[in-house]
Amino acid sequence: MFMLRTIRLNTHHARFFSTEASQKIARIGFVGLGNMGFRMCKNLMKKGFDVTVYDKNQEVLKQFEKEGASCANDAKKLVSSVDCVITMIPNGPDLMSLYTPEVISSFKPRSLVIDSSTVEHTVAQDLESKFKSVNVSFIDAPVSGGILAAENASLTFMVGGDEKVMNRAEPVLKAMGTTLYHCGGIGSGQVAKVCNNLILGITMAGLCEALAIGVALGLDPKILTKVINSSSGQCWSSSIYNPIPGILPNVPSSNGYKAGFAAQMILKDLGIANKAGKNVGLALEIGKKTFEMYDAMCKSGLNEKDFSVIYEYVSQKQK
């Protein structure tokens, strides 16, 4: 057995998990089987959890059923039959529409809800209040790492909520990821996630402008990428998720920008960040400009492509 390593960062915690599954929570319901949720759910099954799935996409449900998962016809049946529910929903309105009063009242007392969607922190706070009224524990636990980390069960979880509830959720989270940060109270995980994605959107856009300039001036994109990754401009988008086709294998840019993280999703997250900034009196000028870039790109018809397609968009704008 691997030892669980704990690192303290001020008053918060970063945990690096072992891969040993726990049976404290045996039955899990998973709602939202998109690019991320699909992979996260498969890792839960690999670690021996009894998983019931629910999604609007019937073809995805059939695929999970073939692999041994149970499929629920509606959310009420799902939540009443499991110990823990994980949601990975595209946006706040869809998340709130899932958790209707009828669905919330169908939970078994002392159930656990883990929301890994990326939504406004106020949505997490509203949900926690509703679940508390029916004796159901709740944490917000958005993720970072992208589709590769989801595939490899190496996601980072940013958790908001009671630390005791987080500890209870730990065996489930470690089946899908390697690092867990306790960020504070309910909603703090969402705050951390939106800060991270603000940086992600900005750095990807800036990287693509730099790459477009270099290529337009005659540099070999592979050489330019090596220079950047060995210099102060290195970032996750350049070294792990490079936006130029053919630089890295197994990334969306090398697969026709087939969405891993759709452009419309980073646009949504940048919108959340800018709204949050406005609410606390911060202009976020770079964030606003980056939002405008992705907004224009999405309106050009690239909204369902991976967000790294902004390289193609910027390159075309240069011409």
The CATH architecture term of the largest domain is 3-Layer(aba) Sandwich
* N-to-C order of helices and strands: EEEHEHEHEHHEHEEHEHEHHHHHH
Radius of gyration: 20 Å
Q: Which spans have pLDDT < 50 for at least 5 consecutive residues?
A: 1-12, 18-23
**How many distinct folded domains?**
2
Q: Tell me the CATH topology of the largest domain.
A: Rossmann fold
Secondary-structure class: alpha/beta
Strand content: 15-25%
Strands ordered across the widest β-sheet: 5-4-3-6-7-8
Structure summary, number of beta strands: 11
Helix content estimate = 40-55%
First-residue to last-residue Cα separation: 57 Å
Set down the secondary structure blueprint.
Layout: E1 5-9, E2 12-16, E3 27-31, H1 35-46, E4 50-54, H2 58-66, E5 70-71, H3 75-80, E6 84-87, H4 92-98, H5 101-104, E7 112-115, H6 121-132, E8 137-140, E9 143-144, H7 146-152, E10 155-160, H8 163-173, E11 177-184, H9 188-216, H10 221-229, H11 236-239, H12 263-279, H13 285-302, H14 310-318
Parallel strand pairs: 3-4, 3-6, 4-5, 6-7, 7-8, 10-11
Antiparallel strand pairs: 1-2, 2-11, 9-10
Helix pairs in contact: 1-7, 9-12, 9-13, 9-14, 12-13
Notable characteristics:
14 helices, 319 residues, Rossmann fold, five-stranded mixed beta sheet, N-(1-d-carboxylethyl)-l-norvaline Dehydrogenase, domain 2, 3-hydroxyisobutyrate dehydrogenase, 2 domains, 6PGDH_NADP-bd, NADP binding, disordered N terminus, NAD binding, oxidoreductase, alpha/beta, single chain
